[in-house]
Design a protein that fits this description.
A hairpin with a 4-residue loop joins strand 34 (684-694) and strand 35. It is built from six helices and 38 strands. The strands form seven sheets. The protein has a 22-stranded antiparallel barrel. It is globular, with a radius of gyration of 26 Å. The protein has one domain (2-592, 627-736): TonB-dependent receptor, beta-barrel domain (Maltoporin, Chain A), CATH 2.40.170. With 737 residues, the protein is mainly beta.
């Protein structure tokens, strides 16, 4: 059946005898959904959230980070203040580069290399999406390879059945200007949707600003009564003046929003395309197949990668320190090209046998990715090519090719027995790794090559009980799995395989979803994640570019609570007051077993009982971190909002976002360290306000105030101190037609 669907996907050209008026309008075009409609949560085994347009537009969300904080269990760490690279963690997992989360757009992976390096250096803009699906239970094994924290699926708008459009213009403080246009419709059975946007503004610090362009074309066609297809293409560009480094404690004390690296820049281009095809093969049987591919070109030129790396004579003889930062100091060009292509096909079987309902989802995936990675050191602050020969800060430092080929198969059966639903599932992942160092190595002038492979079974089972039409109890247990990065598994100098296995855990949860009365909904989940082997940055201070190491056993345990209460739905009030909360309590997120940190001349590393033999720690102090709290795992996260909707078309929303205190390193350092990479991150509460007014049936005006009190707070220490975004004022207008 899968091969039949593939053949059909490749033969979607209308034959000369097929008239256009026999085609159905694309009202139900194929898509890979994680949750789908809200009512499907009744049978989904696990905690799930759908952030729809009410949640996204009601508070006029500015970034993806702002949107995701509306879901309990999700911690998003800011970076540059414009939401371009959100660092997403779920249930206490490290948020760095969102590596522990499976990120999808319309069911398709979009990170730079989902198997070989799941870093979210690119993230699509929030304006592109109609809703966001978040699933954290055992059902996520259908969407691997990463099944530890959760899967986040960003869903683009459907192709409209009738011609329609939307225009939005907005501007504000810190040079913010956004323009967006969306239009589409269906003509003669074929549908089309075009989405165009441009965004410009400054970030959370000095000398940081970005200009983005995003264009998406989506077309859909239903062929006869049993087949339909959607083609989607996207082009995205980012031109940013942005540094990679945070601040030292001294720099923060002088000016917390400063950025001395005014010549740093990031250039990113992404082209993507996909084709999704669905064929109905009889009553209750359908096959959905998707072919996808994308290319990302990213050049990041910077003079510092962290707050401990400041220009000095030893690193660059032509520099002489920060005084010459904008004149003679050189830079580093991190040049990257990523290519990803894959094919996935899913079959769904719905059957009724002996009075029980069986729904089977099964499928396969073939996925390939290639990373071209170079580091080119330039001889001046604005250099974009290698510096002159003889300069110690010039030339090629890295020249790597990394390839991954992955094969996956998965099956999940949903057995409905009256109010009970039992959902067992199994996923198989096989990943092949290759790393080629094209730079000369001592004794090997042509470089070195290394290969490795791993295979992992990922089981899971979930149970739901529909106790009434408005209450569902659920529980689940599944294996968490995340493959290691290519660069951490294969040594660059020898090509040998490093003893770094996959990240593995056992994840359990139990919860309840209920709507006891009209207008009141609650969802509570207790969860536990026990890691056999959690992978974290080797450096005590972390950092997204750090080598990773096995942290061994860790334990996460906590509670999520979300709810909404509406007076209009409960009592029929014409003026609607709506209260929404998303709260996460994480009392336990700690190292288990015997874990140590070596601190001294060789750097700081989190290791197990054995670390490279006796000599590795000769000049370093060994400190136990057993029982210490994991970095970047706040005990409390809370987003609470109160909205008022008047019958005259006026809406007002006030939102409080609370981020609990956390540690910036595995030592749980409470004193300040000079480079700013270790130490506490105090709790902070940020207030947001948004107002929306209907000027006519099709025109609305809005105003938003982000960080209304202009609170100064720390969001990150991984590469030095980074502040949260300062107060932003935004106003705009939208027009529907």
């Amino acid at each position: 059946m899968i091969l039949t669907s593939l053949a059909a996907t490749l033969s979607l050209v209308q034959t000369p005898t097929q008239r256009a008026d026999t085609l159905r309008p694309p009202a139900s075009l194929p898509a890979i959904e994680v949750i789908g409609r809200l009512d499907r949560l009744v049978r989904i085994p696990g905690a799930g959230v759908v952030l729809d347009q009410r949640a996204l537009a009601g508070s006029r969300v500015f970034t993806t980070a702002e949107a995701l904080r509306k879901a309990s269990g999700v911690h998003v760490r800011d970076e540059e203040g414009f939401g371009l690279r959100p660092n997403i963690g779920i249930r206490g997992l490290s948020p760095t580069r969102s590596t522990t989360v499976m990120l999808l757009e319309d069911g398709i992976p979009f990170t730079i290399a989902p198997y070989g390096d799941n870093g979210a250096y690119y993230h699509p803009p929030i304006e592109r999406f109609d809703r966001i699906e978040i699933l954290k239970g055992s059902g996520q094994i259908l969407f691997g390879p990463r099944t530890i924290g959760g899967v986040i699926n960003y869903v683009t708008p459907a192709v409209p059945e009738r011609a329609s459009g939307h225009i939005a213009l907005s501007g504000g403080s810190r040079g913010f200007l956004s323009t967006r246009a969306r239009f589409g419709g269906t003509w003669s059975g074929a549908g089309m949707l075009v989405d165009l946007s441009r965004r410009h503004g400054e970030g959370s610090r000095e000398n940081i600003g970005s200009t983005l362009h995003d264009a998406t074309l989506k077309t859909g066609l239903s062929l006869g009564t049993s087949q339909s297809v959607v083609f989607k293409a996207n082009y995205y560009t980012e031109r940013s003046q942005v540094t990679y480094s945070g601040l030292t404690e001294g720099e923060w004390a002088l000016s917390p929003q400063s950025n001395p690296f005014r010549n740093d820049s990031l250039l990113l281009d992404r082209v993507a395309a996909s084709a999704t095809h669905r064929v109905e093969l009889g009553t209750g049987t359908s096959v959905t197949s998707v072919a996808y591919g994308y290319r990302i070109d990213r050049d990041w030129w910077r003079q510092s990668s962290n707050s401990a790396e400041r220009p000095n004579d030893a690193a660059d003889a032509a520099c002489g320190g920060l005084a010459n930062l904008s004149t003679t100091c050189g830079n580093q060009g991190r040049i990257r090209t990523y290519g990803v292509a894959g094919f996935e096909s899913r079959i769904r079987l719905d059957r009724s046998i002996l009075g029980t309902t069986h729904q089977v989802d099964a499928g396969i995936r073939v996925h390939r990715e290639r990373q071209e990675r170079q580091q080119v050191n330039g001889g001046s602050p604005s250099a974009r090519t290698p510096g002159p020969a003889g300069n110690v800060n010039s030339g090629f430092v890295e020249d790597n090719v990394r390839r991954n080929t992955a094969y996956a198969a998965f099956v999940q059966e949903r057995l409905v027995l009256g109010p009970w639903t039992v959902t067992p599932g199994l996923r198989l992942e096989h990943v092949r790794y290759q790393r080629i160092n094209r730079l000369p190595v001592t004794g090997l002038p042509d470089g070195v090559e290394g290969r490795s492979a791993l295979t992992q079974l990922v089981p899971g089972i979930g149970v739901t009980l529909a106790a009434s039409g408005a209450t569902t109890f659920y529980a689940g247990l599944h294996r968490g799995f995340s493959p290691p990065r290519t660069e951490d598994l294969i040594d660059n100098s020898t090509g040998g395989v490093v003893e770094l296995g996959p990240e593995l855990s056992w994840n359990a949860e139990v919860g309840v979803r209920t709507q006891p009365v009209s207008g009141l909904s609650l969802d509570a989940t207790a969860f536990r994640m026990a890691f056999d082997n959690q992978i974290i940055p080797a450096s005590v201070a972390g950092g997204s570019g750090a080598t990773l190491t096995s942290a061994g056993r860790t334990l996460h345990r906590g509670l999520e609570l979300s709810g909404r209460a509406s007076t209009a739905a409960s009592w029929g009030w014409r003026h609607d007051l709506a209260l929404e909360i998303a709260w996460t309590w994480l009392p336990v997120a700690r190292f288990e077993g015997e874990r140590f940190v070596f601190v001294g001349h060789g750097g700081s590393d989190v290791v197990g009982k054995v670390y490279g033999g006796q000599n590795a720690a000769e000049s370093r102090e060994r400190i136990s971190v057993t029982g210490h709290r994991l970095p970047y795992a706040p005990r409390h996260l809370l987003t609470a909002s109160l909205g008022w909707a008047a019958p005259q078309g006026f809406d007002l929303s006030v939102e409080a976002v609370h981020l609990g205190a956390q540690f910036g390193d595995a030592l749980n350092t409470s004193v300040l360290v000079a480079d700013g990479q270790q130490g506490p991150i105090p709790a902070a509460t940020v207030w947001n306000v948004a107002a929306d007014f209907a000027l006519s049936r099709s025109t609305r005006a809005f105003a938003a105030l982000k960080n209304a009190t202009d609170r100064l707070y720390i969001v990150d220490r991984t590469r030095g101190l980074v502040p949260g975004i300062p107060r932003l004022v935004q106003v705009g207008v939208t027009q529907e037609f």
